[in-house]
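Collaboration report, partner site 2.

Our partner group contributed sequences for two proteins of shared interest, and the home lab folded both. The records are reproduced in the order in which they were received, starting with the first partner submission.
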Amino acid sequence: MNPKQTDRRRFLKNSAALAGLAVGASAGALPVAAEPALEHVDELHQYGERSHFVESVRVGSINNPERRLPNEPRDFGLKTPLQDSAGIITPSSLHYIVSHGYEPPDINPRDHRLLIHGMVDRPLILSLEDIQRLPSVSRFHFIECHGNSTTGGLGGPVRISPDATVQDTHGSTSCSQWTGVPLATILKEAGVQKSATWIIAEGADQNKHSKSIPLQKAMDDALVAYAQNGEPVRPEQGYPLRLVIPGWQGINNVKWLRRIDLVDEPYMGMMEISRYPRLMPDGKSRWFEFEMGPKSVITRPSGGQRLATQGFYEITGLAWSGGGAIRRVEVSTDGGKTWKDARIHEPIASKSHTRFSIAWNWNGEETMLQSRCTDDKGVVQPSLAEVAKHWGTDIDFFRKSTLIVSDLNAIQPWKVNQDGSVKNAIF
């Protein structure tokens, strides 16, 4: 038996005995709890659990509308309940998931290795213990699926439904504090050769998911993470090692990281030739678009919620950008006719969720709530009409298209009805 566990059990037993003596001294002797109950209490408290009154969970379904082959594995995706969020951190247990058809591999961390090879002077094979000995950093970063808040194609009917919640429309993004070693530290130790311009990151999942990433980004702020929100990265998020590529499409954040190959060109893997080129209204594809644009969404009041009565409410939500930190969030309570600056809550981190809020008195009339953000590059979140104009199409394209309209960061409107009900008003 673990000596620490033995000491903890002894402490709990002694504490219970002392409590029994104290009660007995004033109200008559009461029996001390039997040892089996103490054993149960010990196990129950070894890893905490939330109150049974808290019911917020991820939602999703088994679905793979992108299937190309009859035997291609089914996919499942589970979305974060943003409507219940507070602050900027997503609990690890509520972080969104896109499975790409496979359950998480069961990896013994003692056996896991990370191989660094290719165009390097000194190929490396690193254990988890080796990586944990290196200088570490902890950073707040969001991860977002490229299909988050799309209006057509993948899950489109759900997202454009008037009854859609913010979990339905924007739930494929989450934010964590990631702890690990900058990838640049490891690559410098390996000695990157001048001819190398890309890395190929590969996971240990059954599908051996791989992604081509420019070396410049890898040397900038990429992170080999072994911890999430103060504990080891969870299996569904890539245990024991996950590559975090801040601000870029979620597919680049390779889970169960096992290999990094230094090369002089992208390898055009499956996720780069058949899944993640962005399909445009003109029928052409745009390859290697990585960075997620500035986006914000009001989480309260939002779709599916109801205002109980007229009067004061705090409007609150989240903003984020793959281009850097959020510098401004504006909120409109009259359908975009006027805008007011919201208060941005600390901490404000680069490529992280940022909480905002603004005071509002509802007069009981029908209205429209919207938010828009600006990042530190000066890029402003666009309306859907502005996105359509930029793409050379009209708004109906987003409603009717069967394509996966990815990387959509348009302003999300919520309609407040006279009865207090809040509906999705994207169209």
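Second partner submission, folded after the first:
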Amino acid sequence: MTSQPGLWNVANVLTAVRIALVPVFVACLLAGGTTWRLMALAAFAVASLTDFLDGRLARQRGLVTDFGKIADPVADKALTGAALICLSALGELPWWVTGLILFREIGVTVLRFWVIRRGVIAASRGGKLKTLLQIIAICLYILPPALSPPGVVRGLVMAAAVIVTLVTGVDYVLQAMRLRRSDPAAGG
């Protein structure tokens, strides 16, 4: 009989660190100035790294927990959402970009909970590419103006992130619908 991993394992601690870094990131980003922007970038980068590490460690070491299944996507959405909202509030990113990405992110999270009893919608390669593009695009926008690439470069990377975000969102909707239809208890 295998025992369940404890709540406070390394993967869940990394998720908790990511959640704790969100307000630090926001405070640094909103403080303004080159030094604060660099500190915000560092906080965002470390938090993004924990996103990569926590899932990998949980799967490799058998540390998957119910807490992690819920807290990990919440931490991801909190970090990305905070970054996008702050950048839009600062007038550096159009609100429609933030709205589209957040609509998709929240929608996919709701879909995952909607089908959780029938199966898991695992992160696809497209979903992983979406996350990478979002992280890169957000980092480019966080950079202080003196260190940032031209606006057209940032815009193109963000456009790619938005396109992949929307395409993978449609894919997740289709996966959720297949899972619901394949379950006789779903009533159809």
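Feedback sent to the partner group on the second submission included the following. The radius of gyration is 18 Å. The CA atoms of residues 19 and 75 lie 5 Å apart.
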